[in-house]
Amino acid sequence: MSLDETLFVGTPTTAVPLPLDEILEHYAVIRDALANTPHVESNDLSNFVANTSFVYALNAYKAISLLLPELYHESGAVVLRQLWEVSLNLHWVGVDPEPRAQDFCNFTLMEYRKLIQKSGDATPLQSFDDATERFQANFRYQDGRGRNRTHANFATSNIYDRAVVLGDPWEREYELVYHLTSMHAHGAPGAVLHGMFQAQYPNPEIRDRNSAALIAMLAIKVMVRNVELLVQLDIVPNATNVVEAFAAYQAAIAPSTDSTTDSEKPQ
Question: Measured between alpha carbons, how far is 265 from 261 in angstroms, rounded to an integer?
Answer without folding.
Answer: 9
